[in-house]
Amino acid sequence: MPLHFPIAELAPVDDQAPSQDGTPHTVLVLGGGAMRGMAHIGVIRALMEARIEIDAIVGTSIGALVGARWASGASVEQLEHDALTVTEAAVLKRNIKAYVLGGVAQASLYDGEHYRHLIQRIIGSATFASISRPLRVNALSLRNGVERWFGWGADTSIRLVDAVYASGALPLVFPPMILPDDDIVVDGGLKTMVGLFEAIHWGARRIIAIDVSEVINSDDTTWERQGLVGIHGRVVQILAEPQRAAIQAARGRVPTLHIRPDVGLWSSFTFNATRELIDAGYNAVVRALDAPESARFHAAAPIAPAIAGRRAESA
């Protein structure tokens, strides 16, 4: 029986991103969280208003999609327009075969190609080579459990649209993706919900890490009434908890703004609160930038050439 997973396309040789020269100073890390990730757009607006220049982006799942769209040159206004047009019907199209007798053999409840077409519409013809900001996105291998990173300074063997799809291919919801090397990959958030360690590995001198994942609330029982989708979502929440602890422990290695927008009121697939989610991201960054604990982050700001020259002369 043939596999019905989306199959990634090889990027043409001339579509490969150039090798990364140097390391980025300020890296924006956009975490996974499905529709709660619309908060990332408010984050970007706040950072632009604060005139904080972002040198590179690390994205997971919805963070990969928002990051790819912004890296392709989209304005904040375009990002918001795109977000407000994302409806449940645009993202989720039932895989009818999964609802009939024998449907348990299907790879997912929803149509992966339908979702990939949405990604293609949003990012257009952008490629890893054409985007204006270096970008890395992740996925998890089902063959060996290894995390794979795609983009600048990493693997650019597949197209940007396929890398973004793979990063958000949440098991059960969307089918895995088969890569040209026959690896099978799923949502990178199962391994790394917020790619802080990748930003550190990339050489970032300071980091803005946005966490929009769900926090476990023992009093919340809504998932119990959502059947297998609810149970699966609960498992994802549980997997994210040790990651969050690791991030808290590691953020001292590099000056980091670790920001959790106030998005806990909304579930992963809430499609009628996009404006509220965007505002939540904006407000969270404004508060974080003004907080006393952000002093170390601000102190690590890039030094202009003229200032660096004067410091060298006075040394």
Can you put this structure into words, describing what you see?
With 315 residues, the protein is of the alpha/beta class. The chain contains 11 helices and 8 strands. Strands 1, 2, 3, 4, 5, 6, 7 and 8 form an 8-stranded mixed β-sheet that branches. Strand 7, helix 8 and strand 8 form a beta-alpha-beta unit. Helix 1 (39-49) packs antiparallel against helix 3, helix 2 (62-71) runs antiparallel to helix 6 (160-167) and helix 5 packs across helix 6 (160-167). The protein is globular, with a radius of gyration of 19 Å. Residues 306-315 have low confidence and may be disordered.
Count every helix, treating DSSP H or I runs of 4 or more residues as helices.
Answer: 11
Q: Tell me, what's the shape?
A: globular
Distance between the termini: 71 Å
Query: Proportion of β residues?
Result: 5-15%
Low-confidence stretches: 306-315
Class per helix and strand makeup: alpha/beta
Main sheet characteristics: 8 strands, mixed
Order of helices and strands: EHEHHHHEEHEEHEHEHHH
Estimate the mean pLDDT confidence: 88
The overall strand count is: 8
Binned, the helix content reads 25-40%
Task: Please compute the radius of gyration using only Cα atoms.
Answer: 19 Å
Short description:
The chain has 315 residues and is an alpha/beta fold.
Architecture blueprint of SSEs:
Elements: E1 26-30, H1 39-49, E2 56-59, H2 62-71, H3 76-84, H4 88-91, H5 112-123, E3 135-141, E4 147-151, H6 160-167, E5 177-178, E6 184-187, H7 196-202, E7 206-210, H8 227-250, E8 256-259, H9 274-290, H10 295-299, H11 305-314
Parallel strand pairs: 1-2, 1-7, 2-3, 7-8
Antiparallel strand pairs: 3-4, 3-6, 5-6
